[in-house]
Amino acid sequence: MKIDLTGTLYSGMWNYEPPFPALGIRPLPPVPWVDGYVGCEIFDGLHSQTGTYLETPAHVLGDASYPLIDVSLDRICDVPAVVLHLPFLGENMAVTPALLKECDAFHRIQPGEAVLVSCDYGRKWFDADYLSASPYFTRAAMLQLIAKRPSILSSDFPRWDNLANPQSFFGDFYAADILMLAPVINLESCPAMGGRLTALPLKAEKTSCAPCRAILTV
């Protein structure tokens, strides 16, 4: 069975604060050099962190790291994955070490696997407060995940740190050479035993991240 982990792109969807542009999807105007209808859409405001995206450490480390286009297919196709099912976390609640340790799957993580963290938050994808009410990782929880040495870390909530209470773990995260896949949906439908993750980003040059299609095969 294949489970689509990709959130839908739609006009006026939740978006990171300015200067990130807002997404608007509109039809292409009539094409004067074609006789008849042409179906095509213009994606105004599409940026590399629109919706579900895949990201390398270059997002923070710049030229000291590597662009997304250099990531090998072996690292993003058919990757062994585990799903950590946490309780539903509401507005700005924290993922803590205690919550992680309550998951049997947390103790079974093997180095090089993809780790998908679910707070049953993906169901809020179309809600106006999806971003502003996002749960976040405490520094201690993130350091525990980093210590597991995953190849990819993912979650069904969009903002890993808390702007009002910064946890300041991203330096440690990117120094560990972990790819970020976020945010995703439908993790609540995935078994804790996980499966095989494939995340295929747009093939774009000169970027650390790009929207992608993510699928878990279970």
Can you walk me through this structure?
- With 218 residues, the protein is α/β, with parallel strands linked by helices.
- The chain has one domain: Glucose Oxidase, domain 1 (3-Layer(bba) Sandwich).
- The chain has helices at 58-61, 73-76, 97-101, 139-147, 170-175; strands at residues 2-4, 24-27, 41-44, 53-55, 79-85, 94-95, 114-118, 136-137, 152-155, 179-182, 195-201, 209-217.
- The strands form 3 sheets. It has a 7-stranded mixed barrel with strand order 4-10-9-7-5-11-12.
- 36% of the residues are buried.
Architecture blueprint of SSEs:
Layout (H helix, E strand, L loop, with lengths): L1 E3 L19 E4 L13 E4 L8 E3 L2 H4 L11 H4 L2 E7 L8 E2 L1 H5 L12 E5 L17 E2 L1 H9 L4 E4 L14 H6 L3 E4 L12 E7 L7 E9 L1
Parallel strand pairs: 5-7, 6-8, 7-9, 9-10
Antiparallel strand pairs: 1-12, 2-3, 4-10, 4-12, 5-11, 11-12
CATH superfamily: Putative cyclase
Percent range for β-strand residues = 15-25%
Q: Give the overall shape, derived from the CA principal axes.
A: globular
Gyration radius (Cα, Å) is: 18 Å
Helix content: 10-25%
Total count of helical runs of at least 4 residues: 5
Q: pLDDT average, as an integer? A: 97
Termini separation comes to 5 Å
Task: Please report the first level of CATH classification, the CATH class.
Answer: Alpha Beta
Structural domains: how many: 1
Question: Strand pairing plus helix content: what structural class?
Answer: alpha/beta
Task: Return the CATH topology.
Answer: Glucose Oxidase, domain 1
- What order do the helices and strands follow? EEEEHHEEHEEHEHEEE
Number of beta strands: 12
Largest sheet: 7 strands, mixed, barrel
**CATH level-two architecture:** 3-Layer(bba) Sandwich
Unreliable spans are none
Could you give the order of strands across the largest sheet? 4-10-9-7-5-11-12
